[in-house]
Design a protein that fits this description.
By secondary structure, the protein is α/β, with parallel strands linked by helices. It is about 45% helix and about 10% strand.
Length: about 375
């Protein structure tokens, strides 16, 4: 069965992630099906709106398909080319084509409606982030928890989190803390909150009258109860305003609180990869003010180094393969992180012209 199915409802084109057993994990096959179809719909005058949804009631998408990446990294690390950052061909294909799809959605010439029900994490958020009309529901949980597997918030996460105010983006990158519907709206990750039970009614109305897209979404929206990120906004701003990353990390780890959301955030940071935390911070700092295209180019370089260095493969092993939850990070602690180690993630193995994403133009719709 295809991991993505396509349909047309009047002037509405619908792409459905259809891998419910994997929580609609984003695979390379999915990416290679979605990209040409989105291009075709962009050129089709009969299509006025494109909708992106997912099968099942548990997740829009819980992230990327990590098994194939894990296998490719194991093989690469055991090969004579283990020190060559470009040698893992599967990782290069996966990241570059996934980022190209995400960028296409960010720059799409027609409205894109993403229905982000239930779990929206990692690669799933990468798809949703660029949509012009992003819907969350009463059960949405939106997060970038990559620090737990030795990766950073990629798929444009550097751009998305880096533009959040009051240090929230840094806090979310370091802790992987989830946002509910209200928090997603407040943070600028979503545009509308609509009850899941109203989904088919909403899509039917849009299919019949796509010109009323925004009116339909507004009319069907509800006001969700404030979430923990919003309630703790001032505290988060104070924690992340400290001048050095290590000071920020230590302040989060030293939180004396009984709030379950904050406690879990601190626990995730404590158990996560120090390298991933440092890289997430460095990417946000170094790409501040950069175009989205340049952010994706920087992320591709960083991701290929993550695939070459030890923490990403070790994080997947500990969390998903062996499930012992005892990753052996390198370096082991945040205090042991050196500037030289962080700088290495930015040493591009390509010239500007030969970069796999060199042709991305700086025309992002949502960036303006």
């Amino acid at each position: 069965m295809s991991p993505v199915t396509f349909a047309q409802r009047g002037a509405l084109a619908v792409a459905r992630l259809d891998s419910e057993k994997t929580l609609n994990a984003i695979s390379l096959e999915m990416v290679d099906l979605l990209y040409p179809r989105f291009l075709a719909w962009a050129a089709d005058p009969a299509i006025k709106v494109v909708a992106l949804e997912a099968a099942g009631d548990k997740a829009f998408s819980a992230g990327g398909d990590l098994q194939r990446l894990y296998d490719s990294m194991r093989a690469h690390h055991a090969s004579p080319e283990r020190d060559h950052v470009r040698a893992n061909r599967y990782a290069l294909d996966f990241f570059s084509r996934e980022y190209r799809l995400d960028y296409l959605i960010h720059t799409y010439p027609k409205p894109v409606l993403c229905w982000g029900h239930a779990i929206v994490m990692g690669g799933g958020l990468g798809l949703m982030a660029g949509a012009s009309h992003r819907v969350v529901t009463e059960r949405s949980r939106v997060a970038m928890p990559e620090v737990s597997i030795g990766l950073y918030p990629d798929v444009g996460g550097t751009w998305l989190l880096g533009r959040m105010k009051d240090g929230l983006g840094l806090f979310l990158a370091l802790t992987g803390a989830p946002l509910n519907a209200a928090d997603a709206l407040a943070a600028g990750v979503a545009d509308y909150a609509i009850k899941q039970v109203d989904k088919e009614k909403v899509l039917d109305q849009i299919a019949r009258d796509p010109k009323r897209l925004e009116e339909i979404l507004k009319d069907c929206s509800f006001v969700p109860e404030a979430g923990p990120a919003s309630r703790h906004r001032a505290l988060i701003a104070g924690l992340c305003a400290k001048p050095k990353l290590l000071d920020v990390i230590n302040a989060i780890l030293a939180l004396n609180t009984e709030d379950p959301w904050l406690k879990q955030a601190a626990a995730t940071l404590a158990a996560g990869s120090p390298s991933a935390a440092a890289l997430a911070h460095a990417l946000q700092e170094r790409t501040r003010g950069a175009s989205l295209a340049d952010v994706f180019r920087a992320e591709l370089v960083a991701s290929m180094y993550c695939a070459t260095r030890p923490d990403f493969v070790e994080g997947i092993r500990a969390l998903i393969i062996d499930k012992d939850r005892k990753p052996r990070w390198q370096p082991r602690t945040h205090a042991a992180m050196t500037q030289e180690w962080v700088d290495g993630y930015f040493d591009s193995p390509w010239t500007a012209r030969e970069h796999p994403l060199a042709d991305l133009e700086n025309k992002e719709r949502k960036a303006q």
